Amino acid sequence: MKRREFIINSVLAVGGATLLTGCGQKEVQKSEKQVVKRKFAGKEFPLIALGCMRLPMRDSKIDMVELDKMVEYAMSHGANYFDTAYMYVEGKSENAIGEILKQYPRESFYLADKCPAYLVNSKADVTKLFNEQLKKCQVDYFDNYMVHNINKNTINNYRDNDMYGEILKLKKEGRVKNLGFSFHGDPEMLREVIHEHKWDFCQLQLNYLDWEVINGKELYEIADEAKVPIIVMEPLRGGGLCNLPDKAAAKLKERCPDETQASFGLRWVTSKPRVFTILSGMSNFQQMKENIDTFSNFKEFTQEELQTAAEVAKLIQSQGAINCTACRYCMEVCPRGINIPAIFGLYNVYKTNNNGFMFGVNYNALKDSEKADKCINCHLCSKNCPQGLDIPALLKKVESTVERVSKK
Length: 408
Ligand code: SF4
Ligand code: SF4
Hints:
Blueprint: H1 3-13, E1 37-40, E2 43-46, E3 48-51, E4 57-58, E5 61-62, H2 64-76, E6 81-83, H3 88-91, H4 93-101, E7 110-116, H5 123-137, E8 142-150, H6 155-160, H7 163-172, E9 176-183, H8 187-196, E10 201-205, H9 208-213, H10 216-225, E11 230-233, H11 246-255, H12 261-269, E12 275-281, H13 285-296, H14 303-318, H15 340-353, H16 356-364, H17 380-384, H18 391-405
Parallel strand pairs: 3-6, 3-12, 6-7, 7-8, 8-9, 9-10, 10-11, 11-12
Antiparallel strand pairs: 1-2, 4-5
Bound molecules: iron/sulfur cluster (2 copies).
C-alpha cells in the first residue's frame, strides 16, 4: 500500500478523527488547462464544482483515496469550489471533504455548507449546527453558507427561527462570506423568499429537462429578475440526463455526434448567464476528468443546441419516467428502510429499454425488506422529497408494473 493510501485509510479507520499530516501546506500544481470561470462577489469562481452529495464509495464507505485524487485533480485545474451539507452521505460528507481539503491552504479553495432547515427549531440551533459544521469541515469560515432546502415543509422553520438573521450575524463576524439559500419549492414561494431578504446568491435545481417540462424556466427568471446570482444543483438530474432513454439518446447523437450526454447537459446550464457555478455530483475520478475536460476546453452552447435540448427533453418526458434525482432524502425518514431511489431507478431503466424481464430480475435482487410492498403508506418520505413526489403512490405503480411486465 502506498504511503498516501495508508495515511488516508488510517484516517478512515478512526472515523475521521485523526488528521492528515502537513495541514494546509499542499502545493497545487497548476495545469495548463484551467476550467472556465465566472465572477461572483468580486472573485473568480469555477463554472464547474464538486457537489459532495454523491462521493466515491468503496465497501459502503467513502473512498478517501479516490476522493483525494479527485480533489487534487480539480484543484490543479482551477475547479476549487466544493459544496457539502449536514446530511450528505448520511452525515459523513462534511468530515470527508474537510479531511481532504485541510491539506491545502485555506485561501486556495472555496467551501460551501448549508444549515439544515428541517433540524432548526430555535434561533440557537443555527449557531449550534454551524459550529458543529465548521468543526467537521476543519475550517474557521465558510465561503458560501445557505439555509438548506427551503420548501413547503421547511419554510416555517426558516421563517419562525429567523434563520436569515442568525446567519447574517455569522456573516458579520466573518465566519460566513456569502449568505444564500437552496430551494425546492414552487415559483410562488421562490418569489416570496427571494424578496424577503438581501441574499448574496441562491441555489436552484436547473437542467434542460426541468426547464422544458416542469418549472425550471420560471424559477430561473424569478432569480434573474431579482438579480440574485445562481448556483445550479442537479444539472444532470441525479445522473438521469447521462442515461437517456433510447429515442432521446438517438436524437442527441444524431444532432451532436461528438458530445457526451453529460457534457451536453452541463453545457446547457452555462447558457444561463445568471449562473456562476454548477455543482456536479461526481462519483469517481473518470467522471471528474470528463467534467474538467468539458470546462477546460469550453465551447459556448449554441442556439441549435438549445433547440436540440428542448426536443430531447420532450422525448424523455414521453417515456413516463419518475422524476427522482436519487438524492436519498426520503431514506432518512422511511421507518421501513424501503430503497426508494433504487426502486425508482430500476423503473426508469425499464422505461428506457422496455426490458421487463431484466426489470423483474433486478427488482428481485433487492432485499425483501427494501421492496415496495413493505410500504406502510405513512407519507413521511413524500414530505422530505424535494421533487414533491407522491412516493407511496409511485411505489404501488412500480410494484404493479414489475408484477405485470416481468411475467411476460
Ligand atoms: S410511505 Fe412507505 S416509503 Fe414512504 S416513508 Fe412511509 S413506509 Fe417509507
Ligand atoms: S424519491 Fe424524492 S427524496 Fe427520494 S431519492 Fe428520489 S427525489 Fe430524493
